[in-house]
Design brief:
It contains eleven helices and three strands, in the order ααααααβββααααα. By secondary structure, the chain is mainly alpha-helical.
């Protein structure tokens, strides 16, 4: 039995060495086989010691043994002899086992653990990756001020050139505007010519030639707007008066056109007041004329139109006396309208009675 166990242990050790050399994944199986070989060696050693003891006892004891005991003793002796021969024959195996023990890597001495422990150790041994913190951008207001690049001489020259050109254009515009504020009076044949400066640094243009007006003396090199506009104002005011003096029905629309043009040349509040009173007088005259025409007809519709025109003309009255006169005309037309309504109602009743 001891020989078989030794043979088995040697074969197991050889297979374990082959498995260790073939793959590192079978480390746990090789460790188990080595532990089994160690257990077998310990059992073999215990058996050797047990075989040696009875041999020594047989030599020391001179007693006679029974045939049964003699047989057992002979069997033991034969077994001891067989073990000794086996020891002598298999010294190489024992050396191989010792060599295998010496040649085994230190990994075999580690206790076997399940594969999950190895994976856990690998995970522990692996360096932990630090969580990457996203970098927040620094706002532009918190950044240190960067040094401006040195100015380019070409750019500075261009900037100065543009500024000079813009200043030149501004000066030309100011000069042109100032030239338009200058007026010139030139005497002509039976009239005066009024000129105005152009919208340009130099030059002038003719505005109007006014006949029948003498040139002011002494003449100036230039005149202002306040000195020239009254001439235009009086000219258009006189044109409106001439239309009103025409015999027959005056051209009220033409008169109003001249008066509005004269108002555009008024330079004082008094001049505007004069033009406004004349415009109101023209409007009042037109409304009164239309109201008289409508009141001359005896139809209810025409009488109603005359009343509305009289009421509108009263709003342009110059004073309270004129407003009172227009009011009396409205009352007279209103009485006529009432009589006309009563007469038409009586006629309708008579027609119904006759029917």
């Amino acid at each position: 039995m001891g020989k078989e166990s030794l043979i088995k242990s040697t074969t197991k050790s050889e297979t374990a060495r082959e498995q260790d050399t073939q793959s590192a994944a079978n480390i746990h199986q090789s460790a188990d086989s080595k532990t089994k070989t160690q257990a077998a060696q310990t059992t073999a050693a215990s058996k050797k010691t047990a075989g040696k003891k009875p041999a020594t006892k047989t030599k020391s004891t001179p007693r006679k043994k029974s045939p049964a005991k003699a047989k057992t003793a002979a069997a033991k002796k034969s077994a001891v002899k067989a073990k000794k021969t086996a020891r002598k024959k298999a010294p190489t195996t024992s050396k191989s086992t010792v060599a295998s023990k010496k040649s085994t890597p230190p990994k075999a001495k580690t206790p076997t653990k399940p594969a999950s422990d190895g994976v856990a150790k690998e995970k522990q041994a692996a360096p932990e990756k630090k969580a990457q913190i996203p970098e927040t951008p620094i706002p532009a207001a918190q950044l240190p001020p960067s040094e401006p690049p040195p100015p380019d001489p070409a750019n500075r020259m261009m900037q100065f050139g543009l500024a000079g050109f813009a200043l030149l254009v501004l000066l030309v515009i100011i000069a042109s505007w100032m030239n338009t504020q200058d007026y010139y009076i030139k005497p002509g044949e039976g009239a005066i010519e009024i000129w105005q400066g152009k919208f340009a640094p130099m030059g002038e243009q003719l505005l109007m030639s006014i006949p029948g007006i003498p040139a002011p003396e002494p003449l100036k090199e230039s005149y202002s707007k306040k000195e020239v506009y009254p001439i235009f104002y009086q000219y258009y005011l006189d044109k409106a008066d001439t239309l009103l003096e025409v015999p027959g029905m005056p051209d009220f629309e033409g008169v109003k056109t001249y008066l509005n043009t004269a108002q555009s040349y008024a330079t004082t509040s008094q001049m505007e007041k004069v033009v406004k009173s004349r415009l109101n007088a023209i409007t009042r005259m037109v409304l009164l004329y239309k109201a008289e025409v409508a009141a001359s007809k005896d139809t209810p519709e025409d009488l109603k139109t005359a009343i509305s025109l009289y009421k509108e003309a009263r709003g342009y009255a110059v004073d309270d006396g004129e407003a009172a006169r227009i009011k009396r005309k409205i009352e007279a037309v209103d009485r006529r309208l009432d009589k006309l309504k009563a007469a038409t109602a009586l006629e309708k009743k008579e027609q119904k009675a006759n029917n």
